[in-house]
Input
Amino acid sequence: MARSLLHFSDSHGRVPTPGPVEYDIVVCSGDLLPDYYPRKAERERLNLPWALPASPARQEQWLKTQLEKFKTLTRGKPFLFTPGNHDFYDPVPMLCEAGVDAHNLTERVVEIAGIRFYGFPYVPWAGGAFNYELKPPEMQTKIEALIALLNQDAIDVLVAHCPPYKMFDRAKNGLECGNMRMAKLLVEMPEEKLPKAYLCGHVHSDAGDGRFRGMYVSNAATKMRLIPIDE
Output
């Protein structure tokens, strides 16, 4: 049976308002929460590094004011979330308490309506100030776990925050900043083992969609996109 996913990413504190379109599942591929740069007293209270770009406590406070908007967005449909490098608070428990059917996909296979989703929030190391940054050896360990799942045909839709290298990953300065190890996996994996779709964001300046080796790729950074997908 055909299903429609509403994919959005990098809203940074703005809850989308999709309007009169139909969809069965809402998927966010990260950077959902707003950026707050904490003052010194709050950093000390929370034992946060000085460069941290967002405060978990203030992101939590923001979410408390947005629950009705999330109910309007999801319309009783499942909400699947892979965090991004600007997300320092997990919104899923509070959303569930508010009655939203929310799921954090981080390193988990979650099956909804016969479709198996998996979340990969990790981004290449960029100095350590942001969340989910990994240096190459750590990234390779995560990629190897993902390869094992793909070989078991366990994933239909891979929801990653970062695009693969050279796939919708060109920054404003012209540099390609996607995940090289993810790109290598997608090039070398047998085509029949690839997920049906790869949903991401992270690079605002190169949002777009297309196909790679039969797999649908969507970078929806700062956008919303309706995606049909079969079980």
About this structure: The helical segments are 40-46, 56-64, 67-74, 92-97, 136-151, 180-188. The chain has a mean pLDDT of 93. The longest strand covers residues 2-8.
